[in-house]
């Protein structure tokens, strides 16, 4: 059993890495890119019976900085 956690900066939080990627894409000729937000995906191997609530607790305590980041949990 696995969980996949998607972590992204909240709207309104400056994303310098995303801006650097957007700038680089423009430099490579991809003019149609208006904005880029960069995040992370964390895949966790879980013991059988681990609940989504437990993974959510992991996010709240360690995996996401909930002041500036939002997250979603996908059990796979």
TrEMBL record:
<dbReference type="InterPro" id="IPR003850">
    <property type="entry name" value="PurS"/>
</dbReference>
<dbReference type="GO" id="GO:0006189">
    <property type="term" value="P:'de novo' IMP biosynthetic process"/>
</dbReference>
<dbReference type="GO" id="GO:0004642">
    <property type="term" value="F:phosphoribosylformylglycinamidine synthase activity"/>
</dbReference>
<dbReference type="InterPro" id="IPR036604">
    <property type="entry name" value="PurS-like_sf"/>
</dbReference>
<comment type="pathway">
    <text>Purine metabolism; IMP biosynthesis via de novo pathway; 5-amino-1-(5-phospho-D-ribosyl)imidazole from N(2)-formyl-N(1)-(5-phospho-D-ribosyl)glycinamide: step 1/2.</text>
</comment>
<dbReference type="GO" id="GO:0005524">
    <property type="term" value="F:ATP binding"/>
</dbReference>
<protein>
    <recommendedName>
        <fullName>Phosphoribosylformylglycinamidine synthase subunit PurS</fullName>
        <ecNumber>6.3.5.3</ecNumber>
    </recommendedName>
</protein>
<keyword id="KW-0658">Purine biosynthesis</keyword>
<dbReference type="Pfam" id="PF02700">
    <property type="entry name" value="PurS"/>
</dbReference>
<comment type="function">
    <text>Part of the phosphoribosylformylglycinamidine synthase complex involved in the purines biosynthetic pathway. Catalyzes the ATP-dependent conversion of formylglycinamide ribonucleotide (FGAR) and glutamine to yield formylglycinamidine ribonucleotide (FGAM) and glutamate. The FGAM synthase complex is composed of three subunits. PurQ produces an ammonia molecule by converting glutamine to glutamate. PurL transfers the ammonia molecule to FGAR to form FGAM in an ATP-dependent manner.</text>
</comment>
<keyword id="KW-0963">Cytoplasm</keyword>
<comment type="subunit">
    <text>Part of the FGAM synthase complex composed of 1 PurL, 1 PurQ and 2 PurS subunits.</text>
</comment>
<keyword id="KW-0067">ATP-binding</keyword>
<comment type="similarity">
    <text>Belongs to the PurS family.</text>
</comment>
<keyword id="KW-0547">Nucleotide-binding</keyword>
<keyword id="KW-0436">Ligase</keyword>
<dbReference type="GO" id="GO:0005737">
    <property type="term" value="C:cytoplasm"/>
</dbReference>
